[in-house]
């Protein structure tokens, strides 16, 4: 990580400690490839020296803010797949959080979300985006519903001791090398993200873990034409333009009766 502001040195040290990253001098930017940079705009991934910030988590502006305002609210397929209604906001574990876009959509629709991310650079970018959003008057309340956990869902997804502690829904959106989730139009930032993360080759194993943990259902986001995760037939599917949601139902999604 390259810290580009004298003022942010202690924050850079803290990030390095939290995410196991190495702080390097700005000369390092001359090297080809992607660099994680910290400046007054926050933490971002940039390609080469003087390149543009290509990957940054920003919940307050850009596409995320646009989707929050004009994305269709509870009419969105993700909301239907997870089972959100006006009266009921299921608790969710997003076991493959990535840059947190789906996590944020679910939180903006009222769900409490525990987000798991195992890739340290991705987790650092997400944590930094959440930290900046906390102070925002419009989205601070939304990100307060999100808790980020750094680690693998292969370890973090464990069946809860009591029903009350179970998440209602486990949500999975693993990365696939040959995934058709809009691959023709994958934008530059997503190409950088893909290079960083690679394919999640162990994703099939997550499905049974998720089913063991969720109280009501597991939702898997897939490329529209991709095979189901672990080749396991879902209870039903919601088809979108480039992606689809496979829903594995366990019980009717409804509030726990005390
Ligand atoms: C396709 S991205 C998720 C994108 C995310 N849904 C979004 O809206 O930004 C998949 C992410 O899941 C993470 N991941 C995959 N398997 C994981 C696991 N077992 N535990 C934690 N994170 C995992 C990857 O590191 C990657 O960042």
UniProtKB/TrEMBL annotation:
Origin superkingdom? Bacteria
Entry-linked InterPro entries: 16SrRNA_methylTrfase_J (IPR007536), SAM-dependent_MTases_sf (IPR029063)
Detail which positions bind S-adenosyl-L-methionine: 101-102, 117-118, 152-153, 173
SUPFAM superfamilies in UniProt:
S-adenosyl-L-methionine-dependent methyltransferases
Compartments annotated for it: namely: Cytoplasm
Spell out the molecular function terms from Gene Ontology: rRNA (guanine-N2-)-methyltransferase activity
Q: What is its EC number?
A: 2.1.1.242
For this UniProt record, the keywords arranged alphabetically read as follows:
Cytoplasm, Methyltransferase, rRNA processing, S-adenosyl-L-methionine, Transferase
Note whether Transferase occurs among the keywords.
yes
Q: List, alphabetically, the GO terms of the cellular component aspect.
A: cytoplasm
Q: Which reaction does it catalyse?
A: guanosine(1516) in 16S rRNA + S-adenosyl-L-methionine = N(2)-methylguanosine(1516) in 16S rRNA + S-adenosyl-L-homocysteine + H(+)
What is the annotated role of this protein in its UniProt record? Specifically methylates the guanosine in position 1516 of 16S rRNA.
Record HAMAP family: 16SrRNA_methyltr_J
Q: Hey, which family's this protein in?
A: Belongs to the methyltransferase superfamily. RsmJ family.
Name this polypeptide is given = Ribosomal RNA small subunit methyltransferase J
Q: What is the lineage of its organism?
A: Bacteria, Pseudomonadati, Pseudomonadota, Gammaproteobacteria, Oceanospirillales
Q: Which gene encodes it?
A: rsmJ
């Amino acid at each position: 990580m390259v810290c580009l502001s004298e003022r942010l040195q202690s924050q850079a040290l803290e990030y390095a400690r939290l995410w196991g990253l190495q702080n390097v001098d700005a000369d390092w930017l001359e090297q080809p490839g992607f660099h994680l940079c910290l400046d007054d705009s926050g933490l971002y991934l940039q390609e080469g020296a003087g390149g543009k910030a290509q990957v940054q988590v920003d919940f307050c502006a850009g596409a995320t803010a646009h989707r929050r305002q004009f994305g269709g609210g509870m009419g969105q397929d993700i909301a239907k797949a997870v089972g959100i209604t006006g009266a009921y906001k299921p608790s969710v574990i997003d076991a493959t959080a990535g840059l947190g876009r789906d996590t944020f959509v679910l939180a903006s629709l009222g769900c409490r979300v525990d987000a798991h991310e195992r890739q340290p650079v991705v987790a650092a970018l997400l944590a930094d985006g959440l930290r900046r959003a906390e102070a925002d008057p419009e989205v601070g309340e939304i990100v307060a519903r999100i808790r980020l956990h750094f680690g693998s869902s292969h370890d973090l997804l464990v069946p809860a001791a009591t029903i009350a502690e179970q998440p209602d829904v486990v949500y999975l959106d693993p990365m696939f090398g040959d995934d058709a989730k809009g691959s023709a139009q994958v934008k530059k930032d997503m190409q950088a993200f893909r290079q960083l993360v690679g394919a999640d080759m162990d994703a099939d194993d997550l499905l049974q873990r998720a089913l063991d943990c969720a109280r009501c259902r597991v939702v898997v986001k897939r490329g529209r034409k991709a095979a189901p995760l672990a080749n396991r037939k879902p209870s039903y599917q919601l088809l979108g333009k480039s992606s689809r949601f496979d829903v594995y139902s366990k019980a009717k999604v409804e509030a726990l009766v005390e």
